[in-house]
Amino acid sequence: MKFSMMTYTLMRQGGFTPADCVRVAAELKMEGIDWVTTYGEDPALLRKMSEDAGLTVAAHTFFLRLKEGETLLGVAEKSLDNACILGAPVVMIPPSPLAGVESREENHKRWCEMLAEVAPLAEQRNLILTVENFPGMLSPFVTADDFYKAKAQIPSLRLTFDNGNAATGEDQIASLKRCFKDIAHVHLKDWDRSETEVEGMRKMLDGAYYRPALIGEGWVDSIATVKALEEGGYDGFINIEYENNKYRADEGTKKVLEYLRNN
Phi/psi of residue 208, each to 5°? Predict the structure, then answer.
């Protein structure tokens, strides 16, 4: 398997720079890097930093968050152009629930409308447009059914399969196998899980409560995910994602890679 640095994992903690993301990925002998936004840097510089360190730019993740005066297509075009400069073949838009929208169904409808506008722009640039399984009671994309309802409207849409997020709504291995032919990129993530409400944990689609954990220390079986990907012949990249602060993100990433490589 080819493991990819998810820059968000380091940058969300603070105290890290884009150069640190590249350095840590190279030190840990990762093969790729997913630039989650450009952090205000020149994407050409990020590409050069990555390539100089022997890293393939596996993906570019960006958000469709509009500031006053911006348009959906304007924001999308700028980020898609950044992806081309970065040399990323895959782009991913996290489909977080929209402000003020209080149902999964309406979130799904509106996201499909937005993605339908962005998809032709990605196709013009020969980019693979993906969404991920995204956690939450109002999330428009958790299950395989959610994805395929969107794909019926947007045939070019592909999936960044997130095993931890999928597991908050259905069996993650069954979900992976159902979606396998449409998986363009992969995130590994883990959670602590409780059947009853616990302070600091979020209720998810399956009715249970979740809190981010380090891969290998929580409830999700990421070894089974990797084996299912191998058995299916997946040859793309796998992001290591970590959203807790029990460990420094670079130390946590090192522990995850040791766990995955030794099992």
Answer: -90, 175
Mean model confidence pLDDT for the chain? 98
Q: Are strands 237-240 and 183-188 parallel, antiparallel or unpaired?
A: parallel
Domains contained in the chain, number: 1
Q: Which domain holds residue 144?
A: 2-261
Q: Which two three-digit tokens encode residue 226?
A: 């990797």
Range 77-97 average pLDDT: 98
Between CA 3 and CA 240 the distance in angstroms is 7
pTM score, whole prediction: 0.98
User: At 80, which CATH number?
Assistant: 3.20.20.150
3-state secondary structure 12-48: CCCCCCHHHHHHHHHHCCCCEEEEECCCCCCHHHHHH
Alpha-carbon distance of 58 to 44, in angstroms, equals 15
Binning pLDDT at 50, 70 and 90, where does residue 97 land?
A: very high
Cα 27 from Cα 5, distance rounded (Å):
11
Give me the pLDDT at residue 68, please.
87
Residues present in the chain in total: 263
